[in-house]
């Protein structure tokens, strides 16, 4: 039967390339009508063909391919994103014009371009030396009736994209000394690269010093200088967004604004790490990592989230959590940890194998399921199945809730083990049957043993000779703070992947293990490192440090990245409620929040940068934000409140300052104040001052919320 | 996709989308629609043409779209009719996709239409797993205007072997995407 699929796969490809004979065409028709798997294959290959044709993937070179996953701060900003959309639209509109000469579609496309242009605001902040006035994203522009030539509007974009630093392709760029240690790793393994060993009495300053030394050493080797220290406004906002997942309220940010000493920064980090909001964010991110974002039947996401929340809240050692997730038993509604494996047990537990390896060990094994690893000669197909063997004999069953009127299929599941002896069989690419026993890190469970294999795996992981669980977590947390991890992607640290700072990674993992897998401390060390105090603005002395071009990151600054949708939602909520003088109460998991977030079609909640390209792009985001009736009414309400509370007692400038502080955690620039006043003057001419003011405030708030400055973590 | 709570809105145009809203939805559904049409007509040029026809109809019937319902499903229904019209007027080029089979393909195709974004991510990652040689071949093939025979000439390989390689690469990518989707979608 599999022959059908193979045969059809060749025919389909021939069809795509236009080299199918009539006889072959009839044969394909026959196969498709006989075997529904062939129909599926046909659709999958055709969609792949479509995606490749549409230009979803760039295959141009290794580096460029890596870029497909990573966006530059430039490309990640709303503006470059828009221009790439624009190009696509231009292509299309030309095709249309050529074929149809149809003005309507062209107009449609043009209007999109205008809308696109409107969404761009707050760019000038990206380049503060710019003298160009920022245009207020006024609502008038939305109703522009004149068709605009698409190609032209994108050749001469209304924003100053050209002023962003150009990408560096200087071949004289200092060589990446970091590649050498990475190569030597292949022989020694990451942890052997360490030079210092920590004991359980390590102090925070020991680790922070070690981080600083390593980062500085690599910067010096590459002739790169770190960016200057970030101002309090920038740093405070970033700390809130990174640790608790939202912007601070005006009161919260005021508490630390104006201080730049290390004292207040240290205190703020402590305070944020202790907050319940930090645990809430981690629980949300990890729920999505563990079971996926989409709701699945029988997977009890709330139970899993509750489990994670309380574990993060009490700062349970990470290795204990990993162990609990891997060896959990019981009902999905009673032991939330069971939901991780319950979600991945199908298909011979291959998803369980792959996800466990990827999330907890930073190793992508999916491909070696069927053949030896193409690049990493040390990972063999049999190792995959030997790892998979730990999850064999794990089973799930529907809990019989006899007193419930609901049908069984909606009841909770129970995760169990059916310990049994025996080997795990798999088939090589050549069709040979092979058998393996469960083994990891050189230790194996004998074939005749009837132990609970998952429990044994948990034990092996906790005593792993290379502490892979620690390495993977350090890398992930680092990426959470800096936008890039030591490897790219963050969950692939196999031997064929370049590790940017192998010694630092090993040192941090070592410290993490020595601390008893203390996640709070790990976060603190990174947050207090010198590198994380830097501004996200590149300087001329470190603009070559551009991981978004596929280069190994040097961490000369904190890289800008897009907020995750959850962060956008929570931040808008905080900003709008503050302006409306309502208490900042967080919406933890309302249907509205879920729905709002889900419209950004992003399969997971994390904000590791390598995953940020899931965000559909700012054009959609901005437009949804513009059009959402909830946002509109909230903004209207906020601007009315601001008027009643502030206008009589304070100046127009102070109103703007309030809005700016609430949304961007900073005071308005001179340019912004000028635009605000000009806009007010223009509207007051047509209408009374009393009527014009709320509209201007509304526009300003709306413009700030839609700016790339608001939507980026910087 | 559509945003919530319109019930309190006092907007007189509440029942119809504004043009801006329409364009927003329109823009986001272009790629999913293309990907839906392609398996039904079999090649990119025809799919493009059907998509453009579909766009015209969608635009002219935009007042008939009911906000709150799925925009993509609406577009897909229009596209489906356009596919039939296209095949009738052009004479079918695809003998293997006839009558019943077309319906089967269309309904199977719909099932995966919602995975567009996840598939995109999976594709990017799967391409990275290809060898440099395969990636290069893929790039050559998907450079606009290229043909298999030219690539063969350029690489100094028999055309037949180029087509075989392309077949193998496509199958590997399609399977890789499938596996990634199966592993929970979070990768």
Structure description:
The complex is a heterodimer of chains A (714) and B (187). With 714 residues, chain A is mainly alpha-helical. Chain A has 33 helices and nine strands. In chain A, a hairpin with a 5-residue loop joins strand 4 and strand 5 (433-436). The two termini of chain A are 54 Å apart. Chain B is an all-alpha fold. The longest helix of chain B is centred in the C-terminal third of the chain and has 24 residues, at 159-182. Mean pLDDT of chain B is 79; it is low at 1-14. Chains A and B meet through helix 1, helix 2, helix 3, helix 4 and helix 6 of A and helix 1, helix 2, helix 4, helix 5 and helix 6 of B.
Based on CA atoms alone, the radius of gyration of chain A comes out at 28 Å
Give the oligomer, counting copies of the same chain as homo and different chains as hetero.
heterodimer
Low-confidence stretches of chain B: 1-14
- Overall, the morphology of chain A is globular
Continuous helix count of chain A: 33
Say how many strands of chain B there are: 0
Work out the helicity level of chain A: 40-55%
Main pleated-sheet profile of chain A: 3 strands, antiparallel
The overall pLDDT average of chain A reads 73
Compute the separation of the termini of chain A in Å: 54 Å
Taken as a percent bin, the fraction of beta residues of chain A is: under 5%
Quote the distance from N terminus to C terminus of chain B: 23 Å
Which structural class matches the secondary elements of chain B? mainly alpha
Q: Name the structural class of chain A.
A: mainly alpha
The largest inter-chain interface, given as chain pair and residues per side, is: A-B, 104 and 86 residues
Sheet-strand content of chain B, in percent, reads: under 5%
């Amino acid at each position: 039967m599999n022959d059908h699929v193979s045969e059809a796969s060749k025919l389909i490809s021939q069809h795509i390339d236009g080299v199918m004979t009539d006889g072959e065409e009839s044969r394909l028709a026959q196969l498709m009508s006989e075997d529904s798997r062939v129909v599926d294959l046909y659709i999958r290959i055709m969609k792949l063909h479509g995606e490749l044709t549409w230009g979803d993937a760039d295959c141009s070179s290794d580096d460029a391919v890596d870029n497909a996953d990573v966006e530059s701060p430039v490309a990640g900003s709303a503006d470059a994103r828009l221009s790439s959309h624009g190009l696509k639209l231009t292509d299309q509109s030309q095709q249309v014009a050529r074929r149809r000469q149809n003005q309507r579609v062209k107009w449609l496309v043009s209007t999109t371009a205008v809308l696109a242009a409107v969404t761009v605001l707050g760019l000038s902040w990206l380049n503060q030396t710019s003298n160009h006035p920022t245009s207020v994203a006024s609502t008038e522009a939305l109703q522009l009736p004149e068709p605009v030539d698409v190609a032209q509007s994108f050749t001469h974009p209304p924003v100053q994209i050209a002023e962003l630093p150009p990408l560096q392709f200087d071949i004289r760029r200092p060589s990446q000394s970091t590649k050498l240690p990475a190569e030597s790793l292949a022989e020694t393994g990451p942890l052997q690269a360490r030079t210092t060993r920590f004991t359980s009495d390590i102090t925070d300053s020991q680790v922070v010093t070690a981080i600083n030394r390593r980062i500085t050493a690599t910067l010096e080797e590459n002739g790169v200088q770190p960016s200057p220290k970030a101002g309090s406004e920038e740093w405070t906002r970033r700390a809130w967004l990174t640790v608790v997942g939202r912007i601070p309220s005006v009161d919260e940010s005021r508490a630390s604004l104006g201080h730049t000493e290390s004292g207040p920064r240290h205190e703020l980090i402590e305070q944020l790490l202790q907050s319940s909001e930090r645990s809430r964010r981690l629980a949300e991110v990890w729920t999505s990592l563990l079971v996926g974002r989409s709701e699945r039947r029988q997977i009890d996401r709330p139970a899993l989230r509750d489990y994670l929340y309380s574990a993060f809240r009490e700062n349970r050692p990470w290795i204990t959590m990993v162990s609990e997730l891997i060896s959990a038993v019981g009902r999905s509604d009673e032991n939330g940890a069971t939901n991780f494996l319950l979600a991945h047990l199908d298909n011979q537990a291959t998803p369980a194998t792959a996800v466990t390896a990827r999330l907890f060990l930073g190793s992508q094994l999916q491909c070696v399921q069927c053949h030896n690893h193409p690049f990493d000669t040390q990972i063999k197909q049999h190792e995959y199945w030997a790892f998979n063997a730990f999850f064999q004999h794990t089973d799930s069953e529907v809990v019989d809730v006899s007193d419930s009127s609901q049908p069984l299929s909606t009841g909770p599941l129970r995760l169990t083990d059916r310990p049994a002896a025996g080997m795990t069989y798999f088939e090589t690419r050549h069709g040979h049957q092979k058998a393996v026993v469960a083994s990891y890190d050189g230790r194996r469970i004998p074939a005749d043993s009837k132990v609970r294999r998952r429990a044994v795996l948990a034990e092996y992981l906790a005593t792993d000779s290379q502490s892979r669980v620690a390495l993977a977590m350090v890398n992930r947390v680092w990426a959470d703070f800096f936008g890039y991890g030591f490897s790219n992607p963050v969950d692939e640290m196999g031997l064929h992947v370049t590790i940017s700072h192998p010694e630092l990674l090993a040192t941090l993992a070592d410290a993490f293990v020595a601390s008893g897998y203390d996640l709070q401390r790990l976060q603190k060390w990174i947050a207090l490192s010198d590198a994380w105090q830097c501004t996200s603005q590149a300087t001329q002395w470190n603009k070559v440090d551009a991981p978004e071009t596929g280069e190994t990151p040097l961490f000369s600054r904190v890289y800008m990245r897009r907020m995750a949708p959850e962060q956008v939602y929570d931040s808008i909520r905080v900003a709008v409620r503050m302006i409306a003088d309502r208490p900042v109460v967080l919406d933890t998991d309302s249907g509205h929040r879920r729905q709002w977030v889900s419209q950004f079609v992003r399969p997971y909640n994390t904000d590791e940068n390598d995953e940020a390209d899931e965000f559909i792009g700012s054009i959609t985001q901005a437009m949804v934000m513009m059009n959402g009736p909830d946002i509109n009414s909230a903004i209207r309400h906020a601007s009315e409140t601001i008027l009643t509370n502030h206008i009589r007692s304070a100046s127009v400038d102070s109103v703007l300052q309030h809005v700016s502080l609430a949304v961007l955690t900073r005071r308005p620039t001179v340019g912004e104040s000028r635009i605000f006043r000009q806009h007010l003057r223009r509207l007051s001419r047509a209408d009374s001052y009393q009527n014009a003011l709320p509209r201007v405030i509304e526009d300003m708030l709306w413009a700030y919320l839609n700016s790339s400055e608001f939507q980026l973590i910087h | 996709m559509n945003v919530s709570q319109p019930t309190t809105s006092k907007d007189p145009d509440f029942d119809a989308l504004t043009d801006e809203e329409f364009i927003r939805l329109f823009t986001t559904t272009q790629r999913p629609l293309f990907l839906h049409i392609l398996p039904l007509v079999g090649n990119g040029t025809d799919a493009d043409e059907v998509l453009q026809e579909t766009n015209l109809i969608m635009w002219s019937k935009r007042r008939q779209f009911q906000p709150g319902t799925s925009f993509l499903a609406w577009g897909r229904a229009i596209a489906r009719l356009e596919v039939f019209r296209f095949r009738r007027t052009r004479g079918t080029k695809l003998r293997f996709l006839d009558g019943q089979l077309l319906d089967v393909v269309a309904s199977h195709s719909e099932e995966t239409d919602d995975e567009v974004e996840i598939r995109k991510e999976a594709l990017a990652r799967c391409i990275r797993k290809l060898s440099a040689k395969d990636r290069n071949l893929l790039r050559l093939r998907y450079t606009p205007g290229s043909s298999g025979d030219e690539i063969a000439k350029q690489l100094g390989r028999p055309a037949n072997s180029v087509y075989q390689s392309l077949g193998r690469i496509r199958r590997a990518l399609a399977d890789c995407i499938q596996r990634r989707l199966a592993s929970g979608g979070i990768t």
